[in-house]
Amino acid sequence: RMWFIDKLEGSLAYHIPQVIKVSGYINRGYLELSLQKILDRHESLRTVIVEEEGLGYQYIRTSNTFRLNFVEASEIGLSVEDFIKEEVSRPFDLSRDYMLRCTVLEVLPEEFVIIFVMHHIASDGWSMPILVKEFQLFYEGLVKGKEFDLPELTIQYADYSIWQRSYLSGDILEEKLRYWKEKLEGI
Predict the structure, then answer these.
(1) Contact 39, 156 (CB under 8 A)
(2) pLDDT at 124
(3) pLDDT (tens digit, 9 = 90+) per residue, 1-17?
(4) Which residues partner with 116 through β-bridges?
(5) Cα separation, 124 vs 43, whole angstroms
(6) What is this structure's pTM?
(7) Who contacts 64 (Cβ-Cβ below 8 Å, separation ≥6)?
(8) Going edge to edge, which strands form the sheet with 2-5?
(9) Which residues contact 27 (CB under 8 A, 6 or more apart)?
(10) Contact 12, 89 (CB under 8 A)
(11) Helices and strands, number each (H, E), in the chain
């Protein structure tokens, strides 16, 4: 049984959280595999910004080093609510971290809180319902012994970045730069 916590007070603007309470047995391996499948499917969640000789560029990692964080409530020394706030507020290292992290907090035997956090650089508010739906499909498929595969995405973040970079050049780029220089003049 799963239910969602709708509103988190004080979450940071660049983090997009979703907290789900789960009652009953969970398979930790299937949880992790489900999220690895999501990372495989969505390059933006695996994209980091690295620097070489002073130039930054995007690098798309593999999903095979992604790990869930499993924590027991008796180990945290905080209320469940404060722990959730800390997890949601914890910064990402854009040069190293996946743009999705997930912590499973065992509150009681067979009572869990799953905390998803995505960085806004790789997603927006509309992305979280998609992530949760895909997570449910993958996990339920694994539990039922029927591996569930979604169709491959026709466009990835890198494709969009290339399109945007080619669009934002020449006269269009100059117009946008002029606009912001005027708006920010004197600041």
Answers:
(1) no
(2) 80
(3) 444 454 555 444 568 99
(4) 18, 102
(5) 15
(6) 0.79
(7) 36
(8) 2-5, 15-23, 111-119, 100-108, 69-72
(9) 142, 143
(10) yes
(11) 6, 7
